[in-house]
Amino acid sequence: MNNSTTISRFDVADIRAQFPILNRLVKGKPLVYFDNAATTQKPQVVIDAIKHYYSHTNANVHRGIHTLSEEGTLAMEGSREYIAQYLGAKRSEVIFTRGTTEGINLVVHSLGLFHFKKGDEILISAMEHHANIVPWQILCNRLGLVLKVIDINEKGDLCLDSFRSQLSHKTKLVSLVHTSNALGTINPVKTVVDDAHKAGALVLIDGAQAMAHGKVNVRELDADFFVFSSHKLFGPTGVGILFGKEQLLEQMPPYQSGGEMIAEVSFEKTTYNELPYKFEAGTPHIEGNIVFAEAVKWFAALDHQAVHAHEMALLRRATEHVLHIDGLRIIGEAAEKTSVLSFVVEGVHHQDLALFLDTHGIAVRTGHHCTQPLMKRFGIEGTTRASFSVYNSLDEVDFFAEKLQKTVAILR
Ligand code: PMP
């Protein structure tokens, strides 16, 4: 069998060649980057687009008459238009944010000003990232709302029974992660959206981990809000998207206020700008917003079926390898799973493991992965997590497994 992994129309060598960072050495060894759930690496087209922006275009957007400002505005609005099309949304429904975290906080803050009354319930799941727990918790404390938690089973699947039994006319909003960063679980988001809507609840989907593994059409999904980050989708950090249904965004008050989000200001009264600008106060991350579309275009051009097959091959191979390690327990064995392998090893601390792996140039993440309640649910402090992306190879997985096996033997 050829380990250098050519699967259908997908050539991993060709993909790898587009990521210059993959040529670097770490501790004298070729980098094996398995921390993709934390952030992805950037292809050359993205790096070039950043350079091009600052070499040719840099100017503040929207209010300028001069050429650079007009070009910057066109490029940024073009990026919005492209991302809207990719998502199946209207451009007025696509708001540039600093990332998933800010997208959630925007919705929490804005809906918090009018949508809830004391005693209303918000439903999240046991596998949420802190970004989809803490903002709701703060809101619940402020408004006297009840935060309820959908249970998961031992394998890390969402319990639809637990969801349905807690869903009621009191549920005003369901906020659910599409794909878990700590377990890899892919949730039945469409079912949850449809059931929640029947009960009269709004739905926010945290798409941070989903977007780098396939296309999501927000119109088909029908969620009221969908949030994600550029940096997990081969783009720059500090940039993200909040999709919101137009009729909701129209009703929602601004999140932050200041320049850009206004129509007219006097000392007596301010009127707000139209969508999406009502939610974009201040000078945006212009370069990031422009380059975000380059990253999405890069990903969109791949054969997504082949990407999925490749990532599943990586996950399968890694899973088969680690199952041979004595005392290793995989955390997250959901029926529907993305290319995330989280595990604990009896008698070995995950931080020591990661430190040893780093000496071989292997980057994995350890700890609670910003999901402390989930770790508690499994009775553990944290895991070691290898998360695979399009540019990872089976050779890298084999190398990782060999070094992991040796490291565990040494540390025991
Ligand atoms: N939700 C999930 C599922 C995530 O994996 C992350 C990032 N680890 C976030 C939310 C927060 O994303 P960001 O830090 O880009 O705002």
Give a topology summary.
Layout: E1 6-7, E2 10-11, H1 12-16, E3 25-26, E4 29-30, E5 32-33, H2 44-57, H3 67-87, E6 94-97, H4 100-112, E7 121-125, H5 134-143, E8 146-150, H6 160-166, E9 171-177, H7 189-198, E10 202-206, H8 218-221, E11 225-229, E12 240-244, H9 246-251, E13 262-265, E14 270-272, H10 286-300, H11 304-322, E15 328-330, E16 340-345, H12 350-359, E17 362-363, E18 365-367, H13 372-377, E19 383-387, H14 394-411
Parallel strand pairs: 5-17, 7-8, 7-9, 9-10, 10-11
Antiparallel strand pairs: 1-2, 3-4, 6-12, 11-12, 13-14, 15-16, 16-19, 18-19
Helix pairs in contact: 2-10, 3-10, 4-5, 11-14, 12-14
The structure holds 4'-deoxy-4'-aminopyridoxal-5'-phosphate (PMP).
4'-deoxy-4'-aminopyridoxal-5'-phosphate (PMP) binds at residues 99-101, 129, 131-132, 177, 181, 206, 208-209, 229, 370.
Write up this protein:
This protein has a 7-stranded mixed sheet, with helices on both faces. It has a 4-stranded antiparallel sheet with strand order 15-16-19-18, with helices on one face. It is globular. It has 2 domains: 137 residues, Alpha-Beta Complex (Aspartate Aminotransferase, domain 1); 253 residues, Type I PLP-dependent aspartate aminotransferase-like (Major domain) (Aspartate Aminotransferase, domain 2, 3-Layer(aba) Sandwich). The N terminus is likely disordered. Helices cover 38% and strands 17% of the residues. The chain is of the alpha/beta class and 412 residues long. The protein contains 14 helices and 19 strands. Strand 7, helix 5 and strand 8 form a beta-alpha-beta unit. The structure holds 4'-deoxy-4'-aminopyridoxal-5'-phosphate. 4'-deoxy-4'-aminopyridoxal-5'-phosphate binds next to helix 4.
